[in-house]
């Protein structure tokens, strides 16, 4: 035999060819399997999130390739292998097909539903308050922006203050009730604070008392949460 992909002759130059392949079907099936595996592996490995919607289609390609593979391999008849090799190959084939079918039926492994990947609950996000340029000016009407934020404890109760001054000026986020104090943070710097309990938290800037804001924290069920 001259190579693995070698069809048409069962006896060539006195050498019995073990494989009776259909080159085209075999090539297409291998291509489908490679594309299917890649299409499943890449999204779920985290390399590329944008390919995730392709995963289910890739699973279909993989299954089609697995079905076509034996058709391509054994078109001219079953390979003349020793009983031991035939047993191993048959077992591997049945095992692979069973794994794919069972995992597809159970919706596990590479066939996990796309919407079930990642966090199951609502995704927490942060609230940002910008300290506007010119806040250091006593005549400034807008300083903390927005001046009043309403958050839900444990859901979006982490607040980020960003000093967006265009000149070098330090500001603070200081609780009127003495509950928290950022200390001075400069231009383009930020301060982060997470509120754990419900309440109304007025705050101000220590060197610029005209700068005032309020964080109102609520407690309750998370939006979209069950029970
Ligand atoms: Cu200030």
UniProtKB/TrEMBL annotation:
Alphabetized GO MF terms: copper ion binding; electron transfer activity
Gene3D superfamilies given in the database record: Cupredoxins - blue copper proteins
Residue spans crossing the bilayer: 26-47, 54-74, 86-106
Annotated InterPro entries: BlueCu_1, Cupredoxin, ET_Amicyanin
Blue (type 1) copper domain sequence ranges: 144-217
The UniProt record lists the keyword Cell cycle: no
Superkingdom: Archaea
Swiss-Prot/TrEMBL keywords: Copper, Membrane, Metal-binding, Transmembrane, Transmembrane helix
Protein name (database record): Blue (type 1) copper domain-containing protein
Source organism of the structure: Caldiarchaeum subterraneum
């Amino acid at each position: 035999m001259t190579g693995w992909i070698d069809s048409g002759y069962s006896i060539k130059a006195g050498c019995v060819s073990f494989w009776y392949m259909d080159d085209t079907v075999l090539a297409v099936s291998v291509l489908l399997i490679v594309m299917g595996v890649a299409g499943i592996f890449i999204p779920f490995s985290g390399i590329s999130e944008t390919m995730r919607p392709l995963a289910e289609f890739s699973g279909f390609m993989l299954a089609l390739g697995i079905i076509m593979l034996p058709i391509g391999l054994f078109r001219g008849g079953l390979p003349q292998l020793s009983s031991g090799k035939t047993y191993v190959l048959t077992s591997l084939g049945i095992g692979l097909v069973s794994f794919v079918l069972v995992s597809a039926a159970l919706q596990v492994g590479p066939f996990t539903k796309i919407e079930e990947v990642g966090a199951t609950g609502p995704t927490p996000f942060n609230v940002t308050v910008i300290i506007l340029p010119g806040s250091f000016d006593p005549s400034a009407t807008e300083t903390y922006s927005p001046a009043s934020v309403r958050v839900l404890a444990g859901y979006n109760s982490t607040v980020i203050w960003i000093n967006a001054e265009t000149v070098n000026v330090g500001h603070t986020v200081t609780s009127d009730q003495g509950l928290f104090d950022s200390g001075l943070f400069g231009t383009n710097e930020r301060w982060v604070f997470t509120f754990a309990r419900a309440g109304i938290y007025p705050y101000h800037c220590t060197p610029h008392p005209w700068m005032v804001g309020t964080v109102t924290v609520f407690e309750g069920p998370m939006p979209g949460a069950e029970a």
